[in-house]
Amino acid sequence: MPMLKDPSIKYRKFPSMNLPNRQWPSKSLDKAPRWLATDLRDGNQSLPDPMSVAEKELYFAKLVEIGYKEIEVAFPSASQIDFDFTRSVVAKAPDDVWVQVLSPCREELIRRTIESLKGAKKAIVHLYLATSECFRRIVFGMSEDESVQLAVRCTKLVRSLTKEDPSNAGTEWQYEFSPETFSDTSPEFVVRICEAVKNAWGPSEDNKIIFNLPATVEMSTPNVYADQIEYFCTNISERNKICVSVHPHNDRGCAVAASELAQLAGADRVEGCLFGNGERTGNVDLVTLALNLYTQGVSPNVDFSDIISVIKVVEQCNKIPVPDRAPYGGQLVVSAFSGSHQDAIKKGFNDREEIVKAATDSGEISTPDAVKWQLPYLPLDPKDIGRTYEAVIRVNSQSGKGGAAWIILTQLGLDLPRGLQIAFSKIVQREAEVVGRELKGSEIEALFRKEYISNGFVLKEYDIVRVDEQSRKFVGSVEFDGREIMLSGVGNGPISSFTDALSNGFGVKVEVWDYKEHAIGQGSNVRASTFIEIRVDGKEKRWGVGIHEDVVQASILSILSSFAAFL
Ligand SMILES: CC(=O)SCCNC(=O)CCNC(=O)[C@H](O)C(C)(C)COP(=O)(O)OP(=O)(O)OC[C@H]1O[C@@H](n2cnc3c(N)ncnc32)[C@H](O)[C@@H]1OP(=O)(O)O
Ligand SMILES: CC(C)C(=O)C(=O)O
């Protein structure tokens, strides 16, 4: 039995914190944190095939374009690639971007790390040392005191090689210390070691020390992590000289929630990777965090207007696909296949169009974006991240009438009447079942044209004349199957005179059952689209569609389309 009936004999429950006066539950997120993108370090170190220098350059440029101002670019002491890349970034980074690098608390590696930053405009040196009992015992064999001494010694070394070294005066320095495995470390010990590191570095209000408190392994529910962060924020001294950073991993799948609650608990900065790449289950996903803020009306200070190009770079450099269901970015995220979702979304877009039009006409708004977003099933306007509305509604055998109707509306500009939607939906569903897959927009359009627009008729010369107040006469001819057929009929209007003419010409009884029309386009380009449902000799009714500059001719074409199917 691989899984235990009673897992408590093997696994410990993570203890919750006794923090009766916790404040974070009643706070809300109303501003973006400082972001640190660690794709090129934590993300890169977890890849089966780490990035080449060219890939790192491409990725770095994308992070800058998105708007990240603090980027952890490498572990320079790890490899020549990381060292060389750091050198190239130092030479090229924009003036407002902080270049961050990581090193363990080992003297020779710290020296090499700082060497890689020579000449940087803005640099953050980041040291880490695991502080949990588990790591101190198993990995280092170190007591708490020994850990504190090592952290202090290495911090002093960084200080002497950076801000105290006159040859490095041209660089603006920040220092970050991570008590690695924070999430599993006694909160009291974290405060103790960070106090000692703070004294060794000597931060100021203008040049804060960054204490990064990682959930190196996510061990608890996010509320416990938030408690740990709040405990640190309220117990560390000189909080005004400290930037509290968080670095959640996603082992329990809660990294986004953990980051958000940690910010409520006092964190000022968040470290993560685009689309959550990183060790094991990944670092927290920076895209989700940013767009979670955005969809609450809070500017994230980073720009995902062109999410498709971001995904392209991430996939190319990581060589790992971004899942189709990744929050916000995944390519299926703004797509609805199922009938009731499509119906609601289609109604939502119609509703929004009406509200926007009314508000624009009344001069209330100058841009459609000033109307608050409220659309069933879509928390984010897909166009804000560069997705098109065409991608929103997709059609397979689970789709209802709204899906195909939306495709026809967006591709042909035809707003199908309800009856025609229902009829067309059956045809689309049958086809989707036959091919056993999603139908592309072009396939749906082709089905529609074949069913409702094309017909074997050529309409030749015709005339509709007024006989008297109540009646009109249709006289003309059509070509069908290589034959010319003369048509003549009388009715109380153009449509009934034409159906009478068809009935006479083909020896059948044509009845009009339903009629709808609307204009397509505007100004001199306006055309009429006419939807007419007819019945011939009492058989099953059929819809036809006609499009023409002249509304009467559009009706005639529409009737011919459906009539052809009865022959
Ligand atoms: C949570 C994180 O993501 S931490 C960042 C992890 N990233 C990486 O490790 C990527 C780059 N790393 C490397 O290239 C290599 O590990 C190097 C260059 C840093 C070191 O290589 P090596 O000297 O061969 O050591 P190795 O890889 O075996 O590392 C383990 C050693 O580092 C020690 N160590 C681990 N973390 C730390 C730390 N934060 N500070 C000081 N020493 C540390 C271990 O105790 C162990 O020491 P030991 O050999 O005396 O037992
Ligand atoms: C180095 C630290 C911040 C880290 O990557 C982690 O704890 O996950």
Automatic annotation (TrEMBL):
Residues 33-308 form the Pyruvate carboxyltransferase domain. One of its GO terms (molecular function) is 2-isopropylmalate synthase activity. GO terms for biological process: L-leucine biosynthetic process. It catalyses: 3-methyl-2-oxobutanoate + acetyl-CoA + H2O = (2S)-2-isopropylmalate + CoA + H(+). Its EC number is 2.3.3.13. Pathway: Amino-acid biosynthesis; L-leucine biosynthesis; L-leucine from 3-methyl-2-oxobutanoate: step 1/4. Keywords: Amino-acid biosynthesis, Branched-chain amino acid biosynthesis, Leucine biosynthesis, Metal-binding, Transferase. It is an enzyme of class 2 (transferase). Its cofactor is a divalent metal cation. InterPro entries: 2-isopropylmalate_synth_dimer (IPR013709), AIPM/Hcit_synth_CS (IPR002034), Aldolase_TIM (IPR013785), IPM_Synthase (IPR005668), LeuA-like_post-cat (IPR054692), LeuA_allosteric_dom_sf (IPR036230), LeuA_N_DRE-TIM (IPR039371), PYR_CT (IPR000891). Pfam families: HMGL-like (PF00682), IPMS_D2 (PF22615), LeuA_dimer (PF08502). GO terms for cellular component: mitochondrion. Signal peptide: none annotated. Coiled coil: none annotated. CDD domains: DRE_TIM_LeuA. Belongs to the alpha-IPM synthase/homocitrate synthase family. LeuA type 2 subfamily. HAMAP family: LeuA_type2. This is 2-isopropylmalate synthase.
